[in-house]
Amino acid sequence: MSFAAIIFDFDGVIADSEVRANLSLAESLTAVGMPSSYDECLRDYYGHNWQETQRRIEARFGRSLPADFREQHRERARGRFMEGFDAVPGAADFLAKLGSTPRAIASSSRAEYIGWALGLFGLGDHFGDHVYSADGWDRGKPFPDIYLAAAKGLSVDPPQCLAIEDSPTGALAALAAGMTVVGFCGAGHIVDRAAHGELLRAVGVHHVALTYGEIESLTVVAP
What we know:
Layout: E1 2-3, E2 5-8, H1 18-31, H2 38-45, H3 50-61, H4 69-81, H5 91-96, E3 103-107, H6 111-121, E4 131-133, H7 145-154, E5 161-165, H8 168-176, E6 180-184, H9 193-203, E7 207-209, H10 212-218, E8 220-221
Parallel strand pairs: 1-8, 2-3, 2-5, 3-4, 5-6, 6-7
Helix pairs in contact: 1-2, 1-4
């Protein structure tokens, strides 16, 4: 397959972050009297921006989060990340082989966090200004807006883009944008890769890849 650009989700695609993120969210919620488990957080909030996550939390518990919750949670999460945070296996090598291929990140996470993590991984030079964050947007994933913004920023028509997503929520966003979508199952939070691949197929992804090597084998970038 030939594509003019590749657009990456971030958490679970570039950053192997979802285990730490959801463990810390469960701890933060439990600490403010909203008892939650890692599995519940991964099931209910995975792939959404903070605005949608907050809406879902408050609907579940029937009350508002404390005003300082996000800041307190951010500090807790950063502490967990610093225990051994790294890129998804194969991501750095895949990016290094892309040469001049246009690429972007389309993520639900904060732009500041994405920049910090890319610097930590030594991958910041791969994306330049093409880091697009739906944090603060009322319409995050599964709406297509963030993927459409990334394609527009790259000056590439959405149908000419390959999107790489690990969550059903994100995959739906990229599909709604008209992109070819690879459902990626290579990060640490995906325990049963076959079952997760079937979950991604069920929402309509065009391909499922367990490793970056599998993505490389099906990707030809248009000259």
